[in-house]
Amino acid sequence: MQNKTLLPGGSHASAKSSFRDTDRSDDLQSKDNSSKQGHDHEYECVEEDDPGVYVTIRCYPTGSRQIKRVKFRREKFSEMQAKLWWEENRVRIHEKYAGRPI
Predict the structure, then answer these.
(1) Cα–chain-centroid distance for residue 88?
(2) pLDDT at 87 over 70
């Protein structure tokens, strides 16, 4: 199984799936479906916040950003460790990558 990530310019990067995939978009305050309202040049990028922790961010032409998901490498995090890391870092991640506290 492979994950595909949309990079700037519309190209895709593939990586073998060895992550704990945790969709955190449900934690965001705003759920206005702005991605469905004609944003032609939105894109996603992935940043490694801590070793083994990858944050997928959706960037809009307006400059706003939304966290799409947080992934944890299975080699570094058990399920319990990933949950604990998220509890401890959730607010910081939202402030850093979405530009607003939750």
Answers:
(1) 17
(2) yes
